[in-house]
Design goal:
By secondary structure, the protein is an alpha+beta fold. The protein has a single domain, classed as Nuclear Transport Factor 2, Chain: A (Roll). Helices cover about 35% and strands about 40% of the residues. It contains four helices and seven strands. The longest helix has 24 residues. The radius of gyration is 21 Å and the shape is globular. It starts with a helix and ends with a strand.
Length: about 150
């Protein structure tokens, strides 16, 4: 009887350890969205811009940038223009900080929306990021800056 109790304790311990390890290894979609928010806030630098652009792959998911009432689409044909365009658009903010004031993260199956209110040196900015899951990777579909 005592031996059975010890076996049950060992098995339960293994189950608990496996659950803890699995939880530590598995990254949830919400955690991925939080990582994205971290990549687009803070000090504006080329490295931070590159990190944020790692969520864009216009050859797989056409990306649309909406800013000042103008729309720019990036797809397989002009994907190379995205990085220099992003750096040019953010050049005036280079070295300054983007402070997160408010965030909203919505997940709906294969789609996600992140709405951010940011404080910049120039004032407040509202930005909406629409993402789509492609296999196990979240990719930008649309970025709207007001």
């Amino acid at each position: 009887m005592r031996r059975t109790g010890i076996h049950i304790l060992v098995i339960l311990s293994l189950v608990v350890v496996a659950a803890v390890v699995t939880d530590a290894i598995v990254v949830t979609d919400r955690e991925r969205m939080e990582e994205f928010v971290e990549s687009v806030t803070g000090r504006v630098s080329d490295a931070r811009i590159d990190n944020a652009l790692s969520y864009a792959d216009p050859s797989k998911v056409t990306m649309e940038l909406v800013h000042n009432g103008r729309r720019h689409r990036y797809d397989d044909g002009n994907a190379r223009a995205l990085r220099p365009d992003a750096r040019e658009a953010l050049a005036t903010l280079s070295g300054s900080r983007l402070y997160l004031i408010q965030e909203s993260i919505s997940l709906d199956g294969e789609r996600a929306r992140i709405a951010l209110r940011l404080r910049t040196n120039a004032g407040l900015a509202n930005t909406v990021f629409d993402l789509r899951r492609e296999n196990d990777r979240w990719l930008l579909r649309r970025v709207t800056v007001n």
